[in-house]
Amino acid sequence: MDKLYQLALWFGLSAYYLLVAAVSLRVALKRRVVGVSLAWLLVIFIVPIGGVLFYLLFGERYLGRRRKRRAQVLYQTLRESLAETTRLDPQYQDNLGAYAHPIHTLCFKQLGIPSTLGNQLELLSTPTDIFTRMCQDIEHAQSTIQLEFYIWYEGGKADHVANLLIAAAKRGVEVHLILDAAGSRDFLNGRWPIRMRYAGIHVVDALSVNPFKMFLRRLDLRQHRKILVIDNQIGYTGSMNMIDPAHFKQNEGVGQWIDVMIRINGAAATTLAAIHAWDWQVEGGDSIIKRLPENSFQPNDNRYAVQVIPSGTALPSNVIQKVLLLGIYHARANITLCAPYFVPSEHLLEALITAAARGVNVELILPDKNDSMMVSWASRSFFGELLAAGVTIYRFQGGLLHTKAVMFDNEHCLVGTVNLDMRSLQLNSEVTLAFDDPKLCNDIRLLFDQYRNHSYAHDYSIWQQRPLVSKLVEQFFYMFAPLL
């Protein structure tokens, strides 16, 4: 019996070490950032069995072969649909500003998505303003409503939106709703989807969480976009999920969530509609890309460009990170970055430090309290290096600051769904607006001023005196930062 036990133990250990060696070789052969590879090797070696399992589940950007192939084929249809928007103005490239032109060139070459002119943009920065404008536009919808959100949470104003969508469907408006299967799990398992489908609303859960498929595709790759488009003419995107902050996560101890949305009236809304239609068809829905009407907008007095930038694993690699780095290295005077989650890649960290070193005023506005303990500690591990380089770090104390926005030289902005972490920059499906509209940029500058007024700034000398225990915890989570 002892010999049998020893033989089984020997075979088990041999198989385990062979598996560890094989997975480690796989990690080493994958071409990725060195820090990510080292973090995975650390997990594999220090967590017996679980580390290997964790890598097999979450270690590679794998959506599934059939899904990825379908997404790539359908994306060609999206490109052809969006090519129509360039006919708005044959000379539109001549009107692009110093930031907009290189961003347009990058996105058009990588994504096939042109920037557009003739858009009317409006910043909405309070829940009341956001829901009021959304509800007004939904009530006036005549033909189509397209929605896509990571989280839909029951209660308050979100329920009012659901009722308006049901009313719209009953009067003949075609409504398509995409919700992330993980982020909106409670909503999708509740009563509202039943009522919506009964009224004629098309509802689909994106990237369904199925334990039987866990080894066929990554379960943590999520659909993180926030999109609302009415009649292919009016669009919304930004940081806010379909939640009423007065009802959402009230017991988390982080305060009310603070978000922004951009309302678009113009050609960029058509781009958002096409992205939603592509996502819809990738999830197995019928084709609604081909039913997008030819854009009939004419450029108005607003000659400033809007670039819609989708990103995710089914799209060219790291497009949004490239756009962000392009803006940072192009900045001459100041850069302000606002995000709820800050776990930068090596490239982003180096770009911010380099910008500060060459005299650019670099500011980070982050929430003081966060709903993710791991991300919070990992974020703190970068503060010392940034503060030493001259970067100013503000910690917002008026709630969980969920706004995702970046401003360069007070004249070009990025606003959307992307957090300043590697999950958003490289993995999740996201969408961002890049624009240089002076009025909107000034509105965002004033909004950043409001955030600063409810924040405190870190002092480098005081930061260096924090307890040793804090430093050790920060460094522990720093080792896993590339995986967060």
From TrEMBL:
The keyword Cell membrane applies. This is Cardiolipin synthase A. It comes from Ferrimonas lipolytica. It catalyses: 2 a 1,2-diacyl-sn-glycero-3-phospho-(1'-sn-glycerol) = a cardiolipin + glycerol. Its EC number is 2.7.8.-. The chain crosses the membrane at residues 7-29, 35-58. It is an enzyme of class 2 (transferase). Catalyzes the reversible phosphatidyl group transfer from one phosphatidylglycerol molecule to another to form cardiolipin (CL) (diphosphatidylglycerol) and glycerol. SMART domains: PLDc. It is a multi-pass membrane protein. It is found in: Cell membrane. Residues 219-246, 397-424 form the PLD phosphodiesterase domain. Belongs to the phospholipase D family. Cardiolipin synthase subfamily. ClsA sub-subfamily. One of its GO terms (cellular component) is plasma membrane.
